[in-house]
Write a structure and sequence with these properties.
Shape: globular
CATH topology: Hypothetical Cytosolic Protein, Chain: A
Number of domains: 1
CATH class: Alpha Beta
Distance between the termini: 30 Å
Strand order of the largest sheet: 4-3-5
CATH superfamily: YlxR-like
Largest sheet: 3 strands, antiparallel
Number of strands: 5
Helix content: 25-40%
Length: about 90
């Protein structure tokens, strides 16, 4: 029996690869709006980040999310990211 293919993505915070389902996706839509994509299927340019505070802090400090999406990130989106991060940590 063949093993199922697991898509891998790179975290913008720590630059390590992980299965796509373990990461949070931030997407810039074709209209230019930046939002969280918890399903992982929204159209647009996306970046992935581990649901850990260390990865989020290094991505924000180094402006990797802004650089990868080629657009500024609002403070509201960063607060949403932190909220989702805490929810995911509580689930584990």
């Amino acid at each position: 029996m063949r093993k199922k293919h697991v898509p891998m993505r790179t975290c913008v915070g720590c630059r390590t690869s992980a299965p796509k389902r373990e990461l949070i996706r931030v997407v810039r839509s074709p209209a230019g709006e930046v939002s969280l994509d918890l399903v992982g299927k929204s159209p647009g340019r996306g970046v992935y980040i581990h649901p850990t505070e260390g990865c989020l802090e290094s991505a924000v400090k180094g402006r990797q999310i802004q650089r990868a999406l080629e657009t500024p990130i609002s403070d509201e989106l960063l607060e949403d990211l932190k909220r989702v991060l805490h929810e995911k940590q509580d689930q584990q």
